[in-house]
């Protein structure tokens, strides 16, 4: 029995709270790239380019040609839980949310653990504006003056007030967001990243996923200063297979089977599955497993495990080395809970076991037939 007084309970200072929260949303540079890329897609961009220095730790810049950000909204851009997307909790519950973002946490989080600057121009704007952010707030250009920008209920600040915060610049329609010195104020996190190259590979992985899933959007990713992109799709492509061809080459794209399970309108399993998967004798350098659920890049350990097991067995006989699998699942919005994980990487969905079984058995049928026939089928 302790006879000492209990330690007092006190709320943490706001900056500490925000920094802790930011550390959950942004575990590593690729999480930030994913959030910024999703914002660009939410803004209906048709071109998105990503540039990174030192695996995104020193710098990451995402430039798009989307709808842009109104100058008077810059004040809320990095404010936590400020968003243009979600308005009511019911929208989230009803699965009505058709944007990646919904909780206004990404840019706020980034601004608490990095230096953020944003240049943006709307279709109606006469020029672009640039602002810089720190710890959730828009910084005045001259640190000496800090006029009140007002809260959400206040009228939009006038041009004279905005002048103290925003620099007019030239620029085309769209948004460029630059994030520098990620985790500069979280030394333990910063030091954990000893291999910037490995972080860049993760960034390339997430950008590739979106480039495959959004063949209509021209997406590039490069190291800062490099003249050649490491990944580039031209946009306006008709199918993920064409995007795969642009990224991984014609040989890879040609040797993929289609999976297309329409939604069964009579049964209770309301899932539709589309995707592409490699033959069991494929010998890619690295395995690829891209999963999208309702257009979000997510992880499903159970589906991945089942697919890996399927290939492991078949590849033994077929002499394959690694597989390429891209799956896109569409479920009723109300069956998916996207808000279970801070990085939105995992989602919960109803009937997961049965859906995994359906997908894997469909793929197994195709791969086993092919294995038995011992021929290389080429899907057009
Ligand atoms: P969320 O995406 O959840 O709304 P974010 O912190 O990612 O939260 O972004 C906050 C808001 O900033 C968005 O709701 C959007 O209005 C605006 N925004 C962010 N990035 C862009 C962009 N690239 N183009 C246009 N608007 C953007
Ligand atoms: Mg967002």
Written description of the protein model:
Keywords: DNA damage, DNA repair. This protein starts with 13 loop residues before the first helix and ends in a 7-residue tail after the last helix. It has two domains: 182 residues, Histidine kinase-like ATPase, C-terminal domain (Heat Shock Protein 90), CATH 3.30.565; 119 residues, Ribosomal Protein S5, domain 2, CATH 3.30.230. By secondary structure, the protein is an alpha+beta fold. Strand 3 and strand 4 form a beta hairpin. The model has no long low-confidence stretch (mean pLDDT 90). The structure holds adenosine-5'-diphosphate and magnesium ion. Magnesium ion binds next to helix 2.
Q: What's the layout of helices and strands?
A:
Elements: H1 14-25, H2 29-42, E1 47-53, E2 59-64, H3 74-77, H4 89-93, H5 106-113, E3 115-121, E4 128-134, E5 137-138, H6 159-162, E6 167-169, E7 174-180, H7 187-192, H8 196-213, E8 218-223, E9 231-232, H9 240-248, H10 250-254, E10 256-261, E11 272-278, E12 283-293, E13 296-297, H11 301-318, E14 322-330, E15 336-337, E16 348-349, H12 352-373
Parallel strand pairs: 1-8, 12-14
Antiparallel strand pairs: 1-2, 2-7, 3-4, 3-7, 4-5, 4-6, 8-9, 10-11, 11-14, 12-13, 15-16
Helix pairs in contact: 1-5, 2-8, 8-9, 11-12
The protein binds adenosine-5'-diphosphate (ADP) and magnesium ion (MG).
């Amino acid at each position: 029995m302790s006879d000492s007084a209990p330690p007092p309970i006190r709320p943490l200072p706001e900056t500490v709270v925000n920094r802790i929260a930011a550390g959950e949303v942004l575990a590593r540079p690729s999480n930030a790239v994913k959030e910024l890329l999703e914002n660009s897609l939410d803004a209906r961009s048709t071109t998105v380019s990503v540039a990174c220095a030192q695996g995104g730790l020193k710098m990451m810049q995402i430039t798009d040609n989307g709808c842009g950000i109104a100058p008077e909204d810059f004040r809320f851009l990095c404010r936590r839980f400020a968003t243009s997307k979600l308005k009511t909790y019911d929208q989230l519950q009803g699965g009505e949310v058709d944007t990646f973002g919904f909780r206004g946490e990404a840019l706020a989080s980034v601004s608490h653990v990095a230096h953020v600057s944003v240049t943006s121009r709307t279709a109606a704007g006469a020029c672009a504006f640039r602002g810089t952010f720190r710890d959730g707030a828009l910084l005045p250009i001259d640190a000496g003056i800090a006029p009140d920008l007002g809260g959400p209920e206040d009228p939009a600040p006038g041009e004279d007030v905005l002048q103290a915060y925003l620099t007019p610049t030239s620029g085309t329609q769209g948004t460029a967001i630059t994030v520098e010195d990620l985790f500069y104020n979280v030394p333990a996190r910063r030091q954990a990243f000893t291999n910037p190259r490995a972080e860049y590979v993760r960034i390339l992985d997430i950008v590739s996923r979106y480039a495959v899933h959004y063949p209509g959007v021209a997406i590039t990713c490069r190291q800062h200063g490099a003249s050649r992109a490491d990944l580039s799709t031209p946009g306006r492509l008709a199918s993920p297979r064409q995007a795969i061809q642009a990224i991984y080459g014609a040989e890879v794209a040609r040797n993929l089977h289609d999976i297309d399970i329409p939604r069964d309108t009579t049964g209770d399993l309301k899932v539709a599955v589309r995707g592409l998967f490699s033959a069991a004798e494929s010998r890619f350098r690295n395995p690829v497993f891209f999963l999208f659920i309702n257009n979000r890049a997510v992880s499903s350990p159970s589906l991945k495990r089942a697919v890996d097991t399927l290939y492991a067995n078949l590849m033994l006989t077929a002499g394959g080395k690694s597989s390429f699998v891209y799956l896109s699942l569409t479920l009723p919005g109300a069956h998916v809970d996207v808000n279970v994980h801070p990085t939105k990487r995992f989602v919960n969905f109803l009937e997961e076991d049965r859906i995994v079984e359906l997908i894997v058995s469909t793929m197994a049928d195709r791969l086993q037939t092919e294995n038995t026939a011992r021929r290389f089928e080429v899907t057009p």
